Amino acid sequence: MRTGAEYISSLNDGRTVLIDGQAVRDVAGHPAFSKVVQTVGELFDIAADPANGMQYHSPEIDGPANRVFSIPRTSEDMKARRAAVERWAKHTHGWVGRSPDHVGTFFAAFAAHPEVFAHDERDFAGNLTRYYERILRENLYVSYAIIPPQYSRATTASGWEGDNIQVGVVGETEEGLIVRGSQMLATGGAISDEVFVTCIKPLGPDDVDFAVSFALPAATEGLKFLCRRPYATSATSEFDYPLTSRYDEPDALVIFDDVLVPWDRVFIDRDVEKLRRQFFDTGAHALGNWQAQTRLTVKLQFIAAVARKIAAVNGTDRIPGVQERLGELAAVVSSVESALLAAEYSASPDADGMMVPGKRALYGIMGLQSETYPRVIQILRDLAGGGVLQLPSGVADMKSEVTAADVEKYVASPNVSSEERIKLFRLAWDIIGTEFAGRHQQYELFYAGAPFVVKGVYTYRNFGFELHVAELDEFLAGYTVDGRTAGSPALEALVGAGEEA
Length: 501
Ligand SMILES: Cc1cc2nc3c(=O)[nH]c(=O)nc-3n(C[C@H](O)[C@H](O)[C@H](O)COP(=O)(O)OP(=O)(O)OC[C@H]3O[C@@H](n4cnc5c(N)ncnc54)[C@H](O)[C@@H]3O)c2cc1C
Prior knowledge:
Elements: H1 4-9, E1 16-19, E2 22-23, H2 34-48, E3 55-58, E4 63-66, H3 75-92, H4 101-111, H5 124-138, E5 142-145, E6 168-172, E7 176-183, E8 194-197, E9 213-217, E10 223-227, H6 244-247, E11 252-262, E12 266-268, H7 272-280, H8 284-313, H9 320-345, E13 348-349, E14 355-356, H10 359-384, H11 395-399, H12 404-410, H13 418-432, H14 435-446, H15 451-462, H16 465-476, E15 479-480, E16 483-484, H17 489-500
Parallel strand pairs: 1-10, 5-8
Antiparallel strand pairs: 1-2, 3-4, 6-7, 7-11, 8-9, 9-12, 10-11, 13-14, 15-16
The structure holds flavin-adenine dinucleotide.
């Protein structure tokens, strides 16, 4: 199985990664990427070591593969899949959102439903299946850009005047499609093997040229990653920026300058209806977001531990009000963890035999994410107080003859060394206050879509209001202005239960 070193050495393949007005020559060695590249490399090493239990026999390739890419077909598969995703997430403590298992999970679900991609003339379903087999065989790290660039949300792309802003088809040859435009926001794109490009936002009939789905190697002619400002380059040391320095995944707008997409890389060609079906009729959206919730759970557990330790170091953990805050934090974290497990417990096989996580539990907790994450951060912020700023400017102050003695004496706590205290509060600041922290707050609010979409579409539609409204209707039909009507078993049961209680 692919090793970290193999992944790292594959990155300098001529891809176009743009930062500070320049194309980056050495992606793996550039300070914006080198640390997170190392982290991703470690993930591959973990998967490659059989001792970590992440490998399984894949029936699709009749050989060993990484469990994080598996198609779950039984409850045991679900459990084993979650354990593998968790194994990786624990290595990054949940701070790498788009590790290779994220998009790989979407492809597992796509591959379990090739019929969704079937086309009368071209073998798009076969393309999909073969691509998934490559992910299994090669442990591919695929990123994705599936959102139209934020240009104007007043209309969809067909309403935008001028040349393609959103990526879409501008031509077709015997070799494939020619695409032009851009798509947001490929987290990890610059350091991934391949980028999957499509559009998850609903498109109208006039947007048909933008209704495509394909994957390309990161090093494809005409394909460019326009990266946001990196934060890792400002991390003066690992001690001062323990998260920024290891986990700063690059986000990039992906630009396509008349890029050829070979036919064998196309999964959907100008078909608005199939574009929607690929995410929602394959179970990919649910399975992919279940992976994301597994990672989020690990991250929240990590943040809770930091909060708990801060209260201990500051000697506030015996104060009832502080215990209440920690209890609130524990309640939030366990509700996310419980929903993750409930989604697994309530998973059921679809028509193709793939286990789909229970959508009510999954989308229920996702609907609260725009409140739970800020709440967790707020509690940590509250408990940390000014301690995250009553810190020396960096490790140099802890070593310098000029400052070390003062730092050691004044920036400490009873039974806690200065180094331990500074280390903990530096970490807390990287969770709540640095640019990396700010990006993560935006990430947790938006990665699965804007909150109005997550709540208003996914949570609202998957709750199953119908059943409860039917029960309510039966109850309401059970009495009139003249008293209770007979023959309403559900009502009798309800009344009976009430009496027993
Ligand atoms: C850190 C980070 C990493 C990301 N990584 C990826 C990635 O790897 N791959 C990828 O494809 N995408 C990624 N995304 C993009 C993400 O999927 C989008 O941010 C998300 O789908 C929301 O789209 P948007 O940002 O265009 O927000 P918009 O849709 O423009 O919405 C922004 C806000 O405008 C308002 N609004 C807009 N339209 C409406 C409406 N119709 N009704 C009510 N209010 C409205 C709401 O307040 C909404 O929150 C990432 C985003 C972030 C922040």
